[in-house]
Design brief:
Blueprint (H helix, E strand, L loop, with lengths): L3 H9 L2 E8 L2 E8 L1 E2 L5 E7 L3 H8 L2 E7 L7 H4 L2 E10 L2 H14 L4 H5 L3 E15 L3 E6 L4
Antiparallel strand pairs: 1-2, 1-5, 3-4, 4-7, 5-6, 6-7, 7-8
């Protein structure tokens, strides 16, 4: 994956916007995340009683957005946004432990949250990255086709 903007933004940003939907009702929220070294999976945590979790249980197709905007007029030309489509899974057993360790390496402040019995560690298997630069230049990384 040779898109420097993708690597730079995904490694520098700590929070993503997660979008879910259930029965046509969209919902977006912020999540602390980490991406695997090969960029094929994104991990975050949530409590199982949250709306986002219920949406993912009903419809595991999700979208995440990560960007480096600074809330300036220049963002239209200089900011990089990455839209990510994928499939969310509530991890279990050894996979949960591995994903939790990955997430906590980047976000140690979430240790008590992740340790809670009702906390789900979600792994999103990435289908595509859409890397948008210069307001309208789009590069697509299709991991599903690989």
């Amino acid at each position: 994956m040779e898109i420097p903007e993708l690597t730079r933004v995904m490694s520098s940003q700590l929070v993503a916007v997660l979008s879910t939907s259930d029965r046509g009702e969209p919902y977006s929220c912020l999540v602390s995340f980490e991406v695997t070294e090969d960029y094929r999976q994104i991990v975050f945590a949530t409590m199982r009683q949250r709306l986002k979790y219920r949406h993912m249980a009903a419809n595991p197709n999700v979208s995440l957005m990560v960007d480096n905007r600074e809330n300036k007029a220049s963002d239209l030309r200089q900011a990089v946004s990455i839209s990510i489509s994928g499939t969310a899974t509530d991890t279990k057993g050894d996979t949960r432990e591995k994903c939790a360790r990955l997430l906590l390496t980047r976000h140690p402040e979430l240790e008590d949250f992740v340790a809670h019995p009702d906390c789900a560690v979600i792994c999103v298997t990435v289908n595509r990255y859409y890397v948008v630069t210069d307001f309208e230049s789009v590069k697509i990384v299709d991991l599903k086709a690989e």
